[in-house]
Amino acid sequence: MRYSMFGQTGHRVSALGFGAMNLPGVPFEQADAALNYALDHGINYIDTAAGYRNSEEIIGQSISHRRSEYFLATKTNKRDYASAKEEIERSLVRMKTDVIDLLQIHYVNYVDDYKAAMAENGAYQAALEMKAAGKVRFIGITGHRPELLTKWVAKGQFDQVLFHLNLAQPFALDELIPTLTKMGMGKVAMKPLSGGFIQPVEKAIRYPYSQDVNVIISGMVSVDEVKQNLAAMELEVEAEERQELEQLAQQLGAHNCRRCNYCSCPIGVTIPDIMISSQIRNTFGLLPKGLGFYEKQKESIMSCADYEPCKEKPLCEQKCPYHLPMQKVVQETAVSYYK
What domain of life is recorded for the organism (predicted)? Predict the structure, then answer.
């Protein structure tokens, strides 16, 4: 396992982080075994959030007795002071710990959200207060807009950033990661499989592993998944493989969707998933989770071309900050995937 100094925190963290978002979906015994196996095999970064159902409670039940062995990161998606402080205090109780190593202001994609969180009575004030009280060690931010995150960290108010980085979403490499490196901040990449679309798994994980990040958060729910993720990181990425991965990322990232979720479809198409998986689907095919997504979305995708209010000017495209041809991709999917 590769370890690196996590920004300016003074902590050494494992390159593979345990993403606990999906643990509430499996039996407790399975989650408990996965978490403890991860710790036994060198993973020392645990990532969760107050909004991940009872994920924090599972962590508290499973590994709080091993608290000295891991760096604990959680999140609040509250924007006001009172709600954020209440949620942070609840997280401490749920995870059976006296201190949260990293508290992140979560899912900040809109300028208004950022302003609200950073205002005088915002969530950031609550995080600072909890830090002063010794209940939070470091403060970070998460989001899906790498160019906005780059601007928002410029004032030096955060210790870390959590961002997308995978073969289909390499966009953090442009400005965000170089900025974080220059500022000496913690760099955490999430969704190496892009939510269950990218395969093969080993290749998917080795791409962010080849980049300048401290931790790659991979969602794991079983001992077998932990083993699979660890195996993907056994060997360092050499120059030839890195070049191959870079070329593949350029190809799979051609859709240009950041998954900022500004777009919303009146007939229920989950547009970012269609956009991001479009190139993956054509190149590698889909993982079972991706196949399941397309089956669930079939009716909505097939209805896109017939939705009258969008025929002249697609409603989704009017909201996209990147001006992407979303309607065209959705309708092409309807023809090519379900033919």
Answer: Bacteria
Tokens of 52: 């991940």
What's the chain's average pLDDT? 96
What local confidence, expressed as pLDDT, does residue 233 receive?
96
Q: d(Cα 300, Cα 282) in Å, to the nearest integer? A: 20
pLDDT tens-digit map of 249-281: 999 999 999 999 999 999 999 999 999 999 999
DSSP one-letter string for 13-67: EESEEEE-TTGGGS-HHHHHHHHHHHHHTT--EEE--TTSTTHHHHHHHHHGGGG
Least confident span in 36-40, 160-164, 311-315: 311-315
CA–CA distance, 232 with 200 (Å, rounded to integer):
11
* Predicted local confidence at residue 132, as pLDDT: 98
Cβ atoms of 279 and 285 within 8 Å: the answer is no
Domains of the chain by range and CATH? 3-238 (3.20.20.100), 271-336 (no CATH)
Length of the chain: 339
User: Buried b vs exposed e over 83-106: b needs ≥16 C-beta within 10 Å?
Assistant: ebbebbeebbebbbbebbbbbbbb
